[in-house]
Design a protein that fits this description.
This protein is α/β, with parallel strands linked by helices. It has helices spanning about 50-60, 60-65, 80-90, 105-110, 150-155; strands spanning about 20, 25-30, 40, 70-75, 95-100, 110-115, 120-125, 125-130, 135-140. It has one domain (about 20-155): Glutaredoxin (3-Layer(aba) Sandwich). Strand 1 (about 20) and strand 2 (about 25-30) form a beta hairpin. The radius of gyration is 14 Å and the shape is globular.
């Protein structure tokens, strides 16, 4: 079972600003999406089983998220090249942000100690933030089941 982390951010808090390189050679910042709902989902690593399931669930529901005017952004510490391959392999219609210096994950409080098969290491916790059109956090999912999560987020919209 994944360790539940204690998040410092709360619903109603202003979402920490960020700017990052994306797959495809782009760059985005949170300010680009002011006036829209932003689904900012943090995941550990490209092309791993749980992360693939989660990305595919967001991909499969993408049209519904678009109908609701929401933007989906995935964030991991992987470099742009890895994101490019992951996006191409899964045909993802949304951007993945390269957070190699962990600045975004740290600002959102999702970078921390994890444990797998008794081994402790640092990494992204699987946490999603729904940021409202006003730039404030509307909802936080600190425990995510990759296959079911996109449906939970869609229901919250």
């Amino acid at each position: 079972m994944a360790k539940v982390i204690e998040l410092k951010l709360r619903v109603g808090d202003p979402a920490p600003a960020f700017s990052a390189a994306t797959n495809g050679g782009g760059r985005v910042s949170l300010a680009d999406y002011l006036g829209r709902n932003v689904i900012l989902y943090f995941y550990p690593k490209d092309d791993t089983p749980g992360c693939t399931k989660e990305a595919c669930a967001f991909r499969d529901g993408f049209a519904q998220f678009q109908q609701k005017g929401a933007v989906i952004l995935g964030v991991s510490p992987d470099p742009v090249k890895s994101h490019d391959q992951f996006v191409a392999k899964l045909e993802l219609p949304f951007n993945l942000l390269a957070d190699a210096d962990k600045a975004i994950a740290t600002a959102y409080g999702v970078w921390g100690e994890k444990s797998f098969m008794g081994r402790k290491y640092l990494g992204n916790h699987r946490v999603t933030f729904l940021i409202g059109p006003d730039g404030k956090i509307k909802q936080i999912w600190p425990e995510v089941k990759p296959t079911e999560h996109a449906a939970e987020v869609l229901a919250a919209l």
